[in-house]
Amino acid sequence: MRALIATGLIVAATAAQAGDHRVEIDYYMHHYDGADIALSRFHCGAPSAVHTAEERNAWLACYGRFTANYKNALPVGRSIPSEVADAMSDAELAAAQQRMNQVFVQVAQEARQQADLVLLAQGDRLSAKSASDPLQGLPVQTHRLLDQP
Asked: Domain of life here (predicted)?
């Protein structure tokens, strides 16, 4: 009987903990938008505004800060606060990581397109192969984590 009561208390405590983080859990599962990793967060400027070698170097340095931040956010799910991840069920965590994986891939693709525009605007002719290859450090595809961050 005591074991049954203890189990009930643990389940109730876990449910209460998840309830405290329901909004955050929902955000990571359904509404995560990648604002914490997006290139726009670094205010590099529009690729069309890059006209000189100095502007290009400044933009590429800014892009370097973006890639460092992007790499630091990997593996996918790492940026979920531990108290939120602890409150998630395995299914919720998997759903959040799947959502985040999709957003990470999209952010990397969009950043690559902008970098290509900067390079092309300065007269660099990228071969078809180099234009389709991922920039160093930006994966084209990420993989879902099986355990919590």
From this structure: Bacteria
Q: Please return the burial class of 84, using the count of CB atoms within 10 Å of its CB with bins 0-12, 13-18 and 19+.
A: buried
- CA separation for the pair 10, 136 (Å, rounded): 46
Q: Which residue has the higher pLDDT, 79 or 145?
A: 79
Structure tokens at 23: 């909004």
Q: Angle at Cα 69 formed by Cα 45 and Cα 64, nearest 5°?
A: 50
Domain ranges of the chain: 2-132
Q: Is the overall model pTM greater than 0.90, yes or no?
A: no
**Buried b vs exposed e over 35-70: b needs ≥16 C-beta within 10 Å?**
eebbbeebebeebeebeeeeebeebeeebeebbeeb
pLDDT band at residue 114 using 50, 70 and 90 as cut-offs: very high
Residue written as token pair 């933009």: 59
